[in-house]
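ok, trying the design again with the full structure, not the truncated one.
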């Protein structure tokens, strides 16, 4: 799984990058088909925003979250992505099971 981290009006520190890597590594538990993840971090006034794009077999998923703290927005974004990945996996498994 390839991970790209981009910062808009924000410098990506090693601590922030390591935090993102540990949170995104949780996605491996839910799907083996994830090929790449692109995380965009942005600060607009006092709001911290995190966006995540996942490319996996069968489609692309997107989630974003906004909070007062960058770490909180990353947590919320990863939680949304986990829900989407599990839903996508259930859909593909149900679809494949119907053909049997």
């Amino acid at each position: 799984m390839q991970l790209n981290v981009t910062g808009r009006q924000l410098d990506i520190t090693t601590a922030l990058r390591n935090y993102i890597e540990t949170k995104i590594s949780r996605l491996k538990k839910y799907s083996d088909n994830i090929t790449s993840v692109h995380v965009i971090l942005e600060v607009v006034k006092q709001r911290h925003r995190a966006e995540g794009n996942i490319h996996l077999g069968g489609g692309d998923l997107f989630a974003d979250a906004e909070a007062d703290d960058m770490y909180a927005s990353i947590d919320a974004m990863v939680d949304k992505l986990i829900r989407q990945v599990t839903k996508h996996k259930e859909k593909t498994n149900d679809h494949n099971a119907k053909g049997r």
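Keeping the full-length input from now on. Residues 9 and 43 are 6 Å apart (CA to CA).
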